[in-house]
Amino acid sequence: MLSPADRAYLLGETEMEHEQSKRNAEARIRTRITDTVLDFMVLVHHLKRKDRRQVFDTDDERFTDGLTAMLSFAYIGMRENGTDFEHVLEPAVRKAEEVHAADTLGRAVSVDVRFDVETEVETAVDDVAAAIDAGKPVTPAELFSVMVGSDALEQVSEVTPTERRR
Asked: Is the dihedral of CA 65, 70, 73, 74 positive or negative?
């Protein structure tokens, strides 16, 4: 989906000298993401079963991690956009189960899909950033929350590695 140049830009391995170059790269990446999502309609309906099986016939953990990240990206994007993930997930799972049953069993199935997410706020990102600044231990989940939180991340990144070890 990403070109090597786009990947390097997102990973911070390449810097753009001009603001317009940054905007162009970001627009190109958005377009590539949109095109990739639309390509899944073609893949679902036209990629041969043997080819799909070969794609998923791997023991590479990076592939599984990539699938998890792909679903996380969709979930976060839809949530930020105000769309319930279940609006997409439930019909996708239902259709996939119906197709799978027809292909493998030669039968129709009735599918009941339930999707329920309960989120309980444990620690505010600012509190975690303050704990890191104070040299207090934090959990991996708390550290991740700081890594993805923009304001707190900027605060923590201003602290030098030496200061963090104190």
From this structure: negative
Cβ proximity of 133 and 159 under 8 Å: yes
Cβ-based burial of 75 (10 A; exposed 0-12, middle 13-18, buried ≥19): middle
What residue spans define the domains of the chain? 1-46, 120-166
10-residue mean pLDDT series, the chain (166 residues): 94 93 96 97 94 95 96 95 93 92 90 88 80 86 75 42 38
